[in-house]
Specification:
By secondary structure, this protein is α/β, with parallel strands linked by helices. It has one domain: Alpha/beta knot (3-Layer(aba) Sandwich), CATH 3.40.1280. It is built from 5 helices and 6 strands. The protein has a 6-stranded parallel β-sheet. Strand 2, helix 2 and strand 3 form a beta-alpha-beta unit. Helix 1 packs parallel to helix 2 and helix 1 runs parallel beside helix 5. 35% of the residues are buried. The model has no long low-confidence stretch (mean pLDDT 93).
């Protein structure tokens, strides 16, 4: 399972997702351009030393990223989806895609995805933070597939 961030804009969110990836054993794909310099100290500050324990793959464009997905499904998390992530059946080779904080993904990107799901929330609010949504999504997907890490 992998997490992909489409053109993320906030270094702190990326750092938090990198830390999540390290803790849960999930690789993180960054689809450029990003809204910050990759060497931005805020990424390392948020990810801390966890950044050394996560596989990070950077892609120059969505097309370059799409070529790496292989047989895995591309599952887009979007507030525009009708299906709840908690009713969706995840697979171990899924790639969970999240759009940029200000605008999500363009329609052309959404159209290439194999599935679209959402994290249910109250109607009165617009959306969750990117890192929070990613954590909920990864937790549910790993739970369903029996891939949650465990301490022994």
């Amino acid at each position: 399972m992998r997490v992909a961030l489409f053109e993320p804009e906030i270094a702190g969110n990326v750092g938090a997702v990198l830390r999540l990836g390290a803790c849960m054993g999930v690789a993180v794909d960054l689809i450029e351009p990003t809204g910050f310099a990759w060497d931005d100290r805020r990424v390392r500050r948020t990810a801390m030393d966890y950044i050394d324990h996560v596989e990070v793959l950077r892609h120059a464009s969505f097309d370059a990223f799409r070529e790496t997905v292989g047989a895995g499904r591309l599952v887009l998390f979007t507030t525009k989806a009708q299906q709840s992530a908690y009713e969706f059946e995840f697979r171990a080779d899924d790639v969970l895609l999240f759009g940029k904080e200000s605008a999500g993904v363009p329609q052309a990107v959404a159209d290439t995805c194999d599935a679209r799901v959402r994290v249910p929330m109250r109607d009165e609010v617009r959306s969750l933070n990117l890192a929070t949504t990613t954590a909920l999504a990864v937790g549910e997907a790993l739970r369903q597939t029996g891939m949650l890490p465990s301490r022994r």
